[in-house]
Amino acid sequence: MYLLHARHIGKRYQTSSGPFWALRPCSIRFPDRGLIAIEGKSGSGKSTLLHLLSGIENPSVGNVYYLGKKVSRRALPFVGEYGGMVFQHYNLIDGMSVVDNVALPAKMRGGGKKRALALLASFGLKDLAHRDVKALSGGEKQRVAICRALINDPRVVFADEPTGALDETNSIKVMDALKRISKDRLVIMVSHNRALVDVYADKRLWIEDGKVSGALNASQTKREPKKRKGRRHGWLWTFFWRNLKRNAFKDSMCFLAGMVGFLSLLMGFGYLQGNMPAMEAEQQNTLNYLSAKVSRRSEVHLPGSTLTLVKRTSPSEEETREELSGLGGFELSPDYGYFFPMAMPFRIGEDVKEPCSFCPIWDITLTQHGDTLISRGEKPSGLRFDECVVNEEFIRRYGKECFGEEVVVSQRSTVSFGGKGNEVFVEAKLRLVAVVKEFGFLNVPRVYYSLPLLERHLSTIDLIDENGDSEDIVSFVRTSSEDSPYASYDRLMFLSDPKQVASVYHLIEKGDSDLELTSDAYSLWKSFSSLSSAFVSSLSLFVCLAFIGLALILGMASFSSFVEGKKESALLLVLGAKRGEAFSIYIMESAALCALSAAFSLIFSPFLQRFLNHLLLRQFDVHDLLKMPLGSFLGIPYLVPIALVVGAIIFGLIASVIPIAVNKRISLAEELRDE
Ligand code: ADP
Ligand code: MG
User: What span, in angstroms and rounded, lies between the C-alpha atoms of 252 and 129?
Assistant: First the structure.
């Protein structure tokens, strides 16, 4: 068993003029100690041989054995695991101190700085230990590199032109060092400095045009490979921080992109959580919600036709009461819409305005409910028919100055009563005494008047028949037949308690009885909620798109850092890092950025939420539309923040693992070429 045994190894490259042997197949047995020099002209194949021996490159043919174990063609280079390497251009890691550089390969295996300091001292470099390697001279750097190669006490050290970049004095110092370490280990050195080789080499090999000659007369060895200590990962943090600093600009951009992504996710989630409760709170924020229309709906099949007509009639009071008995307290009234319709043009002063909504309410004094909605003016007394309440929408449409003005509305209708046509003229001069704030989004201007007072007013207007007998409008409407237009085909219902609204909406939704309920407030609420669910779907889509974009940004950024750091990764692999460790530096970076931006988004989100809610309130008149459950969600405390940060880390990992995994091949020889 030989310490190092190359069996029939060779390297062939494909060139444009056919295959080319950079190293012709050869077999070499190395002794277990001494300084072996590989000599040859430039381009003769010296480095190629060294790369094959150290495992930096795979041979085209043959294999390399270390103490009888095959070490070539493996995922990790032999030199990283069992050897040490000295490069022509040192390949120390800038920005790190001398001692940290030397200790790095040991740190990967749980070793410490102590041995590094001792090694430095034995090479007369103790005073430099805490300097940044950037500040050293070439000779010093190379001796530091030799210390680094020795830190794990390898039995084989490779050196490719170690004096190639040094002056004579320094070359001698370096050669002295190599000579010294070759006393009890194998040092394989490439050099074309014949004078130095003559003085220092124990044995030599020559290469000419890829053909190796010379004999080493190696003897067998019995020593078993040393057991390696377990791995440690603490050193990764050093590189992680180095990368963060080096990629500061790119990383800040990723951080911002992450903030945008996570904030939009949080806000979207806040909307999802907040919009229904906000709507439910707003839905009662109107005087309109307490009234509904009830009509009987029957289908009429036309004989000889496929058409079906829907016929609406005004249900009787008893029938309505029975049907709605589950609702609790409510008032019923005939609909006087024929004489005083819902939509009428009106005058403010001399100006004639477009029709707007005139809504009857049962209790104009707003004592039962609604007085909290008053934003301006005072509670109507409920004693005079001329008092009315308008909504903010009305003021917005017709101007502030109309507050306190008289709204004059009149309606002329014709009624056939007892065979005689009657002209009925109803005029109301309504004074705006109060403005109520109601859910304004999608709402229309409304004027609320007291239905009992309208009824009292109508009871003073009489109809006269052919015989000169008279009847007032109220009793006329109350006694009209159910399908007469004078009864407006429906009956009005007024709830006495806002808590009943939900049950009414439920009835409207169910809609399975003969009586049909309709409510303006319900339609408004319904349109808002369908608008809102459409918004939620598109919001989810946008958030998904934002995350695809974020994944691409993160993937690109960590991939570009990985490509920029390829040389360093190659070096780490040669120094003994595992592939996973070398890649994890870049993957950790994006996971950490994601975690950081998620954490900052969490901190920032309550402020953004408050700001957006403020804007939404101004725009849509809805309070607290966004409501992120940061405290407790589904009964689990801090579920959302924890899930966000954990999710962000996983997201960052996936976003950067994919591009790096797809492109992870690193050609060590190419990255570490000494040029
Ligand atoms: P040196 O003795 O100067 O260290 P090398 O071992 O680096 O020489 O190179 C030996 C020969 O192999 C050179 O002619 C070089 O051009 C060639 N060679 C090295 N690497 C490659 C490669 N990746 N592809 C093609 N030819 C290569
Ligand atoms: Mg070379």
Answer: 33
Tell me which amino acid residue 136 is: L
The residue contributing the CA closest to ligand 1 atom 8 is 43
**Exposed/middle/buried for 349, CB within 10 Å: 0-12, 13-18, 19+?**
exposed
β-bridge pairing 470-472 and 18-30: unpaired
Beta bridge partners, 471, equal: 463
Q: How far is CA 559 from CA 248, 258, 260, 664, in A?
A: 15, 17, 21, 10
Give the ligand with the smallest distance to the CA of 16.
1
CB 398 within 8 A of CB 353: yes
Closest CA to 577 of 585, 656, 509: 585
- Record the tokens describing residue 298, joined without a space: 């029957």
Interval between CA 11 and ligand 2 midpoint (Å):
14
Q: What angle do CA 571, 572, 576 make, to 5 degrees?
A: 115
Phi, psi of 344 (to 5 degrees): -140, 145
Residue nearest to atom 15 of ligand 1 (CA): 43
Note the pLDDT tens digit of each residue in 144-189. 999 999 999 999 999 999 998 899 999 999 999 999 999 999 999 9
Q: Tell whether ligand 1 has an atom less than 6 A from the beta carbon of residue 584.
A: no
Average pLDDT for the chain = 90
Q: What are phi and psi of 127, to 5 degrees?
A: -65, -20
The residue among 291 and 459 whose pLDDT is bigger is: 459
- Residue 276's pLDDT is 83
pTM, 2 dp: 0.78
> Model confidence over 526-563: pLDDT tens digits?
888 888 889 889 999 999 999 999 999 999 998 899 88
209 lines ligand 1 (CB under 6 A): no
CB of 44 closer than 6 angstroms to any ligand 1 atom: yes
Ligand 1: does its nearest atom lie under 6 Å from the Cβ of 40?
A: yes
pLDDT of residue 675: 61
Coil/strand/helix, residue 611: helix
Give yes or no for a contact between 69 and 78, defined as CB atoms under 8 angstroms apart: no
Whose Cα sits closest to atom 16 in ligand 1?
A: 43
Distance CA 508, CA 291 (A): 13
Cβ(222)–Cβ(200) under 8 Å? no
Mutate to test the pocket of ligand 1, among 26, 42, 44 (most ligand atoms within 8 A of CB): 44
Q: What is the pLDDT of residue 225?
A: 64
Measured in angstroms, how far is the CA atom of residue 578 from the centroid of ligand 1? Answer: 27
Residue 465 CB: number of other CB atoms within 10 A? 14
